[in-house]
Amino acid sequence: MNNKELKKRRMWTYFIDATEELIHTEGFKQVTIRKVADKAGYNSATIYNYFGELSHLLFFASLKFLKPYFKVVTEEIKKTSDPIEKYLVAWEVFSEHSFKNPDVFHSAYLMDLGEHPESLLAHYYELYPADLLDVSDELKPALMKRNIDDRGRFAISYMIKAGVVDEDEAEELNELTNLIWQGMFTNVLNNRNRYTAEEAHVQSMKYIREIILAKTNKV
């Protein structure tokens, strides 16, 4: 790696780390390009040499906040070999963490990042490869998927391989479960829901579990 590339990587981490610190101290909604620049010790114009827009900075910073989620889902999925239970566990952990940290999960998985969000995700792990050290090889492919539908397809692949559902049934189940979560999550994120974060998680998992068990003939 030449000096120019090293400098570029260093500048990226300066701004991402500054964004992370601002989120910690002020919250997602208070982060601005100017504040990030001031925190990192540069002017705002410099940031645009490395990031196209604020959403990209928030996306990269949000991934740093996902490490506890990655750790828990890795540990929990290892505890069962049953393909249906693996899918349920994947949803349980994702749902619980997403409702506890809606701004983080919105930025990481739903916020409009423009073109080629997958390349941004890959670039993050180039900058922070240590974030993958505690993630099992089984789950690493899923972490390289930013699209919720694609991540769901990976999670449900265990059931396809085991013959529990065929590909068409899996696609339908994936769409239904994603719609349940996204509907509840969007309402919570926009303060349009009567549920607390914990209640939203419990209610979402009630519906998701019912659909999964119905579609796999377990009820």
From TrEMBL:
One of its GO terms (molecular function) is DNA binding. It holds the Pfam family TetR_N. Residues 32-51 bind DNA. Signal peptide: none annotated. Keywords: DNA-binding. Residues 9-69 form the HTH tetR-type domain. This is TetR family transcriptional regulator. It comes from Planococcus donghaensis. The lineage of its organism: Bacteria, Bacillati, Bacillota, Bacilli, Bacillales.
